[in-house]
Amino acid sequence: MPEISRGLLDTSVLIDHDLIDADRLPDESAIAAVSLAELAAGPHATQDESERARRQDRLQWAAATWDPLPFDTDAARAYGRVFASVKASGRTHRSRLADLLIVSTAVANELAIYTRNPSDLEALEKIVDIVGI
Q: Above 90 in pLDDT, residue 110?
């Protein structure tokens, strides 16, 4: 019997979900509450009315599709390891807080992270499985 894939979809995957071949996604997927927060901010980050509506639709779809995993105590502990790995690699962490919180949620829940931006997470490959799509 084939192993069932499980993973946390990062915000980039949620944004492009309808463009991604379903075979590249995990059999069982989850999202982080931090991704939902990023999607909630999205409509406010554009002046274009049609883009704002599209972003609002994406937020509503994601909220209706998943019960997001919280950034909880275990994720906070995992964040220490994530932060240390990024810092040790010499990469910046300040402008990527949301990404690192999402990865911490994946680590805490023992899930691979599915992303459209795998190169952004290279410093973390020792503590989380990174699946680029």
A: yes
Residue 130, amino acid: I
Q: What is the pLDDT of residues 68-78, one digit of tens each?
A: 999 999 999 99
DSSP code of 72? -
Residue 132 tokens, joined:
């680029």
Q: Are 113 and 131 in contact (CB under 8 A)?
A: yes
What six digits make up the tokens of 1?
Answer: 């019997």
Q: How far is 69 from 75, CA to CA, in rounded Å?
A: 10
Q: Which DSSP state fits 26? A: -
Distance CA(50)–CA(131), nearest Å, equals 31
Q: Rounded distance, CA 79 to CA 101, Å?
A: 7
Q: Both ends of the chain: CA-CA distance in Å? A: 24
The pLDDT tens digits of the residues spanning 14-68 come to 999 999 999 999 999 999 999 999 999 999 999 999 999 999 999 999 999 999 9
Residues 30, 8: contact at Cβ < 8 Å?
A: yes
- Token digits of residue 30: 């989850």
Beta bridge partner(s), residue 132: 115
